[in-house]
Amino acid sequence: LAEKLEVQSSELVKELMLKGIMANVNENIDFDTAVSLAEKYDILLEQQEEVDILEDFFKVEPSDEKDLRSRPPVVVVMGHVDHGKTSLLDAIRKTRVTEKEAGGITQHIGAYVAQVNDQKITFLDTPGHEAFTAMRMRGAQATDIAILVVAADDGVMPQTVEAINHAKAAGVEIIVAINKMDKPGANPDRVKQELVEYELICEDWGGETISVPVSAINGEGIDQLLEMIVLVSEMSELKADPKRDARGIIIEAQLDKGRGPVATVLVQSGTLRVGDPIVAGTSYGKVRAMMDDKGRRVKEAGPSKPVEILGLNEVPLAGDPFYKAKNDREARHVAEKVIEKGKVDLIKRSSTKVTLDDLFSQIQSGNVKDLNIVVKADVQGSVEAVKQSLQKLSNEEVVIKIIHGGVGAVTESDVLLASASNAIIIGFNVRPESSAKSVAERENIDIRLYRIIYNAIEDIEAAMKGMLDPIF
Ligand code: GDP
Description:
- The protein has 472 residues and is α/β, with parallel strands linked by helices.
- 33% of the residues lie in helices and 25% in strands.
- Helix 7 links the parallel strand 5 (145-151) and strand 6 (173-179).
- 41% of the residues are buried.
- Mean pLDDT is 88; it is low at 344-350.
- Guanosine-5'-diphosphate (GDP) binds next to helix 5.
C-alpha cells in the first residue's frame, strides 16, 4: 500500500498506530482501513474483483496429444447388497497383489493396484454406487469401468438396477461379473436374460456387454474378469499426460492421531511428488510423505496411481479435487479463497440445477438439451407407464431421458444420482425418505410428488412450454 501511495511504509505504520492498530510492514490490513489511510493522501481506493484467482488456478489447459501416455483403468465394483462386491475385491487383492509381495502386507488405503501380466488395474476399494455417485456429485469423475456384480443364484435385484443406471448416467463402461457360480442354485442364463431388460445384452446373447462367470469364494473366473478389464481399457485408449503438474481427486481421508490428516489421492494427470505444494478442497499443504497400497514409501505417483499422502493442514472430503500449486503461498492463498467463496466443488460443472419452474428458460437459453428424470413409484406398473408417457413428450428442443426408474420411496441415492446428472425426480404415491429430503434441499433438487400420472405429464408438458403454474 505504501508503494502505491508513494509514501514511506514507516509513515503508514505510524498512521495505523494513531488509529490504534499495531501493524508491522508485512501486516495485512482490511480494505476499509486501507481506504481511510489512502484518504489522507487524497487517493480513492477501489476494490478489485478477485474472481479470477480461482478461475485461473483451476483452469486446466488440455495437454498436447504427443504428451499423452496410456494409463491404467480405474475400476469400481457395484451391485446389490450381499451379491459379493467386497468378497470379489478381496479375492482380486489376494491373488494379484499380496502374493507377489514378499511377506506382503496390504494396506487398506481406499484403493489398490492389481497386476495382470504387464498391465495394471486400479481398483477403488469402496464398493457401491452410492459412494461412486456421491463423488460424481462433487464433480469428480474418477472411474473408467464399473464391474456389476450379480449373484447367479439371486439374479437382478433393485440395487442391481440402481447400479446399472448410476453407471450409465456417468457414462462408464460396464462389465458384468456373474458371481457365486460355485453355488448349486447358480443360473447365469437367468441373470443374462434379466439384464436384457436394462439394455445390457451379453455377448452370447448377441449383444456387446461383456459378462464373466466368477466365484469370489473359489477364485473361478477371476483371471478372465481381469483380462476383460484390460481388454476394455485397451479399447478405450485411456491416456494422461504424466509430465504436467499433478491433479486428481481425494478418494478418502481421515485424521490420524499420530500423523495428522491422512488422505488417499488418485492422481488423474501429471505426477505428484514428495514436496509438492497442493490444494485439496479447502485444505492445503506440502506433500510430506507418500505411501503406496503396499505401504511402501514412494517419491512420486503418476496417472491412475493411488497413494496415501501426509502433510495437509486439515482433512479434505472424499471427492474433493486436488491440484498442485506453484508454491506454498499459492496453495494457502487458493485454499483460503475457496473457503471464503464457499466454493468447494471446484471442478464441478455449472451448479445451476434444472427445475420444472425454470425448464423453459433453460431450454430457451440452450442450457438444457436433455431433461433427465428419475421416476419412483409404488408399483412397477406405474414406473413403466410413466416412463413411456414421459418419453413421448420429447421434441426437437429437448429430449426426455428417464435415467432411473424404480419401486419405493425416493432415497438419498436417487437424489445423489439426480444431482450428479442434473435431473428432476418424480414420485407417484411415494414420499422422499427424510435423508433424501435434506440432501435434495441442500443440492436444490426438484422433487415432484403426484397421485395421478396424468397430472405429471401435464406439468412436464406445461413446463416445456414455459406455461407451468407456479407453486406458492
Ligand atoms: P457385498 O454386500 O456385495 O459386499 O457382499 P459380500 O462380499 O459381503 O458377500 C456376501 C456374502 O456372500 C458373504 O457371506 C460371502 O461369503 C458370500 N459370497 C460372496 N461371493 C461368493 C461366492 O462367489 N460364492 C459363495 N458361495 N458365496 C459368496
